[in-house]
């Protein structure tokens, strides 16, 4: 059937390749059905199938809407439940003020402890170990670089000698 459609296309002024592309896009969008029977491939579309597809989409959207409404009601209830017990009162304001004072005190103590980290034996040992590792790495890379420099110089010298001899 596809071959027949491709043959009919140029007679009506349509490029045969575009016929194939349009039919494939219609099949992909489920607007046209396709079935292979033997060696032939048949395409068809029934008016009721488009209506069924629209009904299926409508029912899916309706169910999504219902679930969204249900979720909205749940979230509003949860929000109301969380607001209970948080009404403005003198007791709540005192508790919030006390919490703020405690947080300020905590941050002040934390800053004060930060001033003494330079004298912390554990921090000192960690810095000492890091310095030793960095020192070893620097010596390792410097040694490699010097060895490579010497090797390069010797190679250039050997090339010059070879050039002078020949």
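-> sequence recovered:
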């Amino acid at each position: 059937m596809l071959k027949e459609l491709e043959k009919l296309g140029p007679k009506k002024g349509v490029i045969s390749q575009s016929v194939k592309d349009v039919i494939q896009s219609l099949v992909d969008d489920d607007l046209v059905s396709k079935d292979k029977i033997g060696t032939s491939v048949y395409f068809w579309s029934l008016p009721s199938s488009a209506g069924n597809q629209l009904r299926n989409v409508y029912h899916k959207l309706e169910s999504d809407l219902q679930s969204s409404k249900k979720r909205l009601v749940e979230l509003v209830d949860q929000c109301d439940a969380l607001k209970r017990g948080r009404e403005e009162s003198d007791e709540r304001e005192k508790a919030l003020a006390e919490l703020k004072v405690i947080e300020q005190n905590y941050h002040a103590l934390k800053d004060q402890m930060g001033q003494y980290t330079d004298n912390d034996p554990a921090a000192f040992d960690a810095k000492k170990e890091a310095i030793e590792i960095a020192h070893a790495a620097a010596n390792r890379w410097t040694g490699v670089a010097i060895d490579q420099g010497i090797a390069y110089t010797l190679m250039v010298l050997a090339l010059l000698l070879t050039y002078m001899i020949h």
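The longest strand covers residues 33-37.
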